[in-house]
Amino acid sequence: xxxxxxxxxxxxxxxxxxxxxxxxxxxxxxxxxxxxxxxxxxxxxxxxxxxxxxxxxxxxxxxxxxxxxxxxxxxxxxxxxxxxxxxxxxxxxxxxxxxxxxxxxxxxxxxxxxxxxxxxxxxxxxxxxxxxxxxxxxxxxxxxxxxxxxxxxxxxxxxxxxxxxxxxxxxxxxxxxxxxxxxxxxxxxxxxxxxxxxxxxxxxxxxxxxxxxxxxxxxxxxxxxxxxxxxxxxxxxxxxxxxxxxxxxxxxxxxxxxxxxxxxxxxxxxxxxxxxxxxxxxxxxxxxxxxxxxxxxxxxxxxxxxxxxxxxxxxxxxxxxxxxxxxxxxxxxxxxxxxxxxxxxxxxxxxxxxxxxxxxxxxxxxxxxxxxxxxxxxxxxxxxxxxxxxxxxxxxxxxxxxxxxxxxxxxxxxxxxxxxxxxxxxxxxxxxxxxxxxxxxxxxxxxxxxxxxxxxxxxxxxxxxxxxxxxxxxxxxxxxxxxxxxxxxxxxxxxxxxxxxxxxxxxxxxxxxxxxxxxxxxxxxxxxxxxxxxxxxxxxxxxxxxxxxxxxxxxxxxxxxxxxxxxxxxxxxxxxxxxxxxxxxxxxxxxxxxxxxxxxxxxxxxxxxxxxxxxxxxxxxxxxxxxxxxxxxxxxxxxxxxxxxxxxxxxxxxxxxxxxxxxxxxxxxxxxxxxxxxxxxxxxxxxxxxxxxxxxxxxxxxxxxxxxxxxxxxxxxxxxxxxxxxxxxxxxxxxxxxxxxxxxxxxxxxxxxxxxxxxxxxxxxxxxxxxxxxxxxxxxxxxxxxxxxxxxxxxxxxxxxxxxxxxxxxxxxxxxxxxxxxxxxxxxxxxxxxxxxxxxxxxxxxxxxxxxxxxxxxxxxxxxxxxxxxxxxxxxxxxxxxxxxxxxxxxxxxxxxxxxxxxxxxxxxxxxxxxxxxxxxxxxxxxxxxxxxxxxx
Length: 937
Hints:
Elements: H1 3-21, E1 23-32, E2 35-36, E3 41-45, E4 49-52, E5 58-65, E6 67-74, E7 81-87, E8 92-97, E9 108-109, E10 117-118, E11 126-129, H2 131-135, H3 142-146, E12 152-155, E13 164-167, E14 183-187, E15 190-191, E16 212-219, H4 223-226, E17 233-239, E18 247-257, E19 261-273, E20 278-289, E21 300-313, E22 316-329, E23 335-338, E24 344-345, E25 363-366, E26 376-379, E27 384-401, E28 404-429, H5 434-437, E29 447-452, E30 458-463, E31 474-475, E32 485-510, E33 514-536, E34 547-551, E35 559-560, E36 567-568, E37 574-594, E38 599-621, E39 641-666, E40 671-682, H6 687-691, E41 705-717, E42 721-737, E43 740-743, E44 748-751, E45 755-773, E46 776-791, E47 793-796, E48 807-810, E49 814-815, E50 822-832, E51 835-844, E52 847-848, E53 856-857, E54 860-870, E55 875-882, E56 890-896, H7 908-913, E57 919-923, E58 928-936
Parallel strand pairs: 1-8, 14-17
Antiparallel strand pairs: 1-2, 1-5, 3-4, 3-6, 6-7, 9-10, 11-16, 12-13, 14-15, 16-17, 18-19, 18-58, 19-20, 20-21, 21-22, 22-27, 23-24, 23-57, 25-26, 27-28, 28-32, 29-30, 29-34, 30-31, 32-33, 33-36, 33-37, 34-35, 37-38, 38-39, 39-40, 40-41, 41-42, 42-45, 43-44, 45-46, 46-49, 46-50, 47-48, 50-51, ...
C-alpha cells in the first residue's frame, strides 16, 4: 500500500471514529438495603434524558457525548439523590443506594409553588401520599383517602360524595352540601371544577384509582397565591409520568361492608414508550358497590378511563391528556338519636346499618319549567347522583434558553350532575297537621288511608279530624304506621350542566440567586342549573317503604294525596332554575430569592378578577284548575311551582389581591425552619345567588371572605426519623351564614337572611415517622387547636317566613362548630421480605355540633389494618380492613328531628327544654374489608 493511500485510509478511520471516542455509556443500579428497586426514575441533566430501572434495579444511558452532567434519582418514598459526573470517552458504573424518605421531606414537591423544590427547602406546610399510602386505604372516595393527610379534617360519613374537607379552622362555609368551599381539589395542577354550589362540589367529578401516582396536600399558606379562589388548601392528585419501560398493573378487588354488603372493583394502569420519544399512559377503574349501609338498591356503580400521550425532546415535553367519567353513587343522610349527653340510636334504627333512604321506584314528575309542553322528569332514588365528566387537555413545558422556561396547561371539560335522591328523613307524627297538609291538598281532613305503594295492601287507616284542635289522630283499623309517623323527606331532583375552560400559563426566569415566576390563570364556566323538590310519603322505619295515600271521606270523592309511587306535592317544595357564567382571571408573580446557601425567601402576589353573571327565575304555584292533569281529586299535582316569566339577574365583579411571604432557613443538611404569612381571599360561590333572594331582586353582591394565616414550622429528616411541625394562627372574616328552613304553615322551603361573622383558630399540626428497624416504621401525625367563633350571630326565623317573629342570637366567643380540639393518627407499618402489614389508630376529638355549643359530638376512635403478601414476582395480594372494631362514632349533626330543622336550632336552651327530644346525627361508616389481587408486568 503506497503512502498516500495509507494516509487517506488512516484519516477516514480517525475522523469516523471521533464520535465513538467522544462518547460514553452510563450504567447503574438503584438499591435500598442491598435490594434492587424497580421503576426508579433517573434523569440526566442538561440532556433532559430520563429512564427508569428494570426489575433488577438497573438502568442505562447510551452514547452520551463528553461533558459534565448531573444525574438524579426520583422514587416516591425515598430521598431524591443527585451525582455530578464527567464523561470523557469513558463508561461509568453508578450505584444509587436510596434512603427511605419517611414523610417525603426530601421528595420534590410541585404543588403550592411555581417551581419544583425539595419539601425540606420549601416554606409551606405540605404533605404527600405515595402509591403505598394510597393502596393501603379502603377505596371509598376522595375524602376518605385524605384522612391520612396530617392536620386535615375530613367528614366522609355520607360516602364518596357530599363530603367535607378543610384545615386550620377555615371551615365555616364548608357546609355538608358544599364541603370543599375553601380548598382546591386538583388533577395535575388544575382544578377539577371551577364552580361550587349546593349539591355541586368537585368531589362529584373526582375518583382516584391506579392512574394516580401521588397526592400532594398544601394546608393554607401558599394556596392563597397558587390556587384559584381557594385559600384554605390544595389537594393535587398527580398522574404517572413518562415510563421508559412498558409496565402495568391489573388489580381485582372484592369485599364486604356493614351488614355483609358486597363491593367488586377492577383497576388497571399501563404505561410505556411508543417510538421516537413518545410515551403513553392509560388506565381507570369500574366498581359495583352495594353500599356500607343497608338500602334496597345498588349504592354505587360506574367508573372512569384516563389517558395521556407525551412527546419529550431535549428542551421539554408536550402532552395530550383526557378523562371520561360515568359514575352513579349516592350519599347517606342522618340517623335518629336520643339522649343529648350520650347519643343512642332511636326508633329501631342503628348507627351502623341504617340508611333511611327512599326505596327504588320509577316516577315521572312534571317539569315546572315546561308545564304547557307536558314535560316530565324521571325520578328514581336508586340513581342517586349520576356524574359525567368528559375532559381533555394539552400540557407543555419548554426551555427557551438563557434560563427561560415556559409552561402551559389547558383543559376543557363538559360536566353533568343529575341528582335523584331524598333529602331529610325527619320524624313527622301522624298527630302533626304537616303529615297531611304537606301533600298540597286544600283541606286533607278526615279518613286518610295509607297503602303500601309497591304491593297495594292497606297499611293503616286514620281519622285526623281532631288534629287542628290539638286532638290526636285515631286509627280506625288494626293497621299501624311504624312509630306512628311518616318520614319527612323530599324527592329531590337536581340537574346541572357545565362547560368549563381552564388555562394556566407560567413563565419563569432563573438568575444566579433568583427564580422569578409570572403567569396567568384563566377559567370560564357556563352553567345551567335546575332543582325541583316534591314530598315523598314514606314509612318511618330503618328500611323505609313508599306509601300511597288517599283521603276517603264517606259520601265524598276520593282525594289522591299522593300518586301511585307515594310522591306528593309535585314540584311544590322547591324550585330553582338558573343560568350562570363564571370568569376567573388571575395574574400572579412570585420570586424565590436565594439569600445564601442556607436561606431562601419566597414572595408572591396574586390578583383575582372574578365575574358572576346570570339569571334566576321567579316562580309561583301553578294556577291551572285541577292541577297538571285538570283533575281536582288528584291533589298531588295541584301545587307545582312554575316560572312566572320574570327573572332576576345578577352581574357582579369581585376583585381582590392576595399575597404571601415565606422564608426557609436550613439549619443543617437535614433540618430546616420556615415561616410564612399569607393574606388570602374567598369570593362567594354560586350558592349565594341560587339559595338567597327567593322571588326578590338580587340587589347586592356577596361579601369577599378574608383569610389571614401565620405559620412557623420545623422540618427534620434523617434515615431513621423524620418529623415536621407547624404552629399556625388563622382568622376568617366576613363569613356569610344562612340556614335552610321550612314553614309548615305555607309548605315553603326557604333560606334565612345572610349574616356575616368571624372565626379564629390557633394550633399545632405535626407529622412524624420513626424507623427503628429496616422492616418497621411508626407514624404519628395530627393537630391540636383552639377554634373560636370570635364574632358570631345566628338568624332564627322561628319556623316561619314572616320576619316579624325572627330573632338574632349572639354566640361570639363560643367554640367554632365541627372543629376538634385534638385529632391524630398513630400507626405502624411492617415490610420484610414478601410480607407487609399495617395497623392504624385514628382518633377524632369531641366537636361542637353548632356554634351555640348546645350539643357536642363525642370523641371516637377508628382502627384500620391490612396485610400484604408478594406471591411471585408478578402476583401479590392484600387484605384491608377499615374500622376493624366497628366503632360507632358520630361525624355530623343536623339538629332536631323535625322536617326543615337545622343544627343551629339546638341551642342550650332548646336542649334543656327538650331533654327527651330526638335529633339527627350522621354516624361514621361501619366496618369494611377487601381482598385485592394484583398482577404486575
